[in-house]
Known about the structure:
By secondary structure, the protein is α+β, with helices and mostly antiparallel strands. 25% of the residues lie in helices and 35% in strands. The chain contains 3 helices and 4 strands. A 4-stranded antiparallel β-sheet has the order 1-2-4-3, with helices on one face. Strand 3 and strand 4 (79-87) form a beta hairpin. The protein is globular and about 40 Å long.
Amino acid sequence: IAEVEIRISQNPDEMQIKIVDSGMGIPDEDKDHIFERFYTVNKAHSRKLGGAGLGLSLVRTILDKHGGAIQVESTLGEGSTFTLHLPR
């Protein structure tokens, strides 16, 4: 079972929200695609759990509309960190 931690910080210019998990991680070749609509890293796993590959695409679209951004750092087998940047 993966653990998830949420960290929030801010400075005068922006708020940062970090979502850190200890899950399976994302392969390097998939990192450039995970924010695309309908893209799933593990298609069999997504089908089993009902994932459609829309979640991260929606997050990026919402952040773009608010002048923000999202980044991902991930190591296969160790987990991922998603950092959301929102202007203040």
